Amino acid sequence: MNWKGFTVIHPMKDFYQGIRKLHIGWQVWVLIMGIVNFLIPAFYFHRFEAQLSIVAMLVSMVIGLTLVKIQGFTKLLGWMHILWVPLVAFFIFQMESTPMTDFYGVWIRILVVINGTSLIIDTMDVIQFYKNKR
User: Fold this and answer.
1) How far are the Cα atoms of 28, 53, 79, 100, 122 from residue 112, in angstroms, in the given order?
2) What is the pTM for the complete model shown?
3) Residue spans per domain, the chain
4) CB crowding 72-100: b at 16 or more within 10 Å, else e
5) Which residue of 42, 78, 120, 123 sits 20 to 30 Å from the alpha carbon of 26, by its own alpha carbon?
6) Phi and psi for 99 in degrees, rounded to 5?
7) Reduced to 3 DSSP states, what percent helix, strand and coil does the chain have, rounded to the nearest 5?
8) What is the largest CA-CA distance in the chain?
């Protein structure tokens, strides 16, 4: 692997080409994760939880692009959401103090469901990747 002259453009292009090759259902799933973790929190950026979601998404993208650079678009990309483990735990605790009386409270619950589901999928993907590498 050659990091000399590394730019984010090539891994980003490879990442999005990989997504476009997925079944349409998985493409929609990726879009939903982007909306829940990045777009919706942008409307609540003055709230700590929204800032945390956006930062976790940005760091996840850096991890994902690095994995694409190293390994290509593989099931190993499940590691990119590793920060969602503490994020989901934090948001579960926030649910107690955040009622569903407005969309913000609903969003927190949607994020827990979407990211929790993604973590299950990611775990299965990473396990499958390592089983097939032997």
Assistant:
1) 18, 11, 18, 14, 15
2) 0.87
3) 9-133
4) ebbbbbbbbbbbbeebbebbeebeeebee
5) 42
6) -70, 160
7) 80, 0, 20
8) 52
pLDDT tens, residue order, the chain (134 aa): 555 555 657 888 999 899 999 999 999 999 999 999 999 999 999 999 999 999 999 999 999 999 999 999 999 999 999 999 999 999 999 999 998 899 999 999 999 999 999 999 999 999 999 998 74
**Is residue 73 within 8 Å of residue 118, measured between CB atoms?**
no
Q: Are 63 and 79 a contacting pair, CB within 8 Å?
A: yes
What's the burial of 38, exposed, middle or buried (CB within 10 Å: 0-12/13-18/19+)?
middle
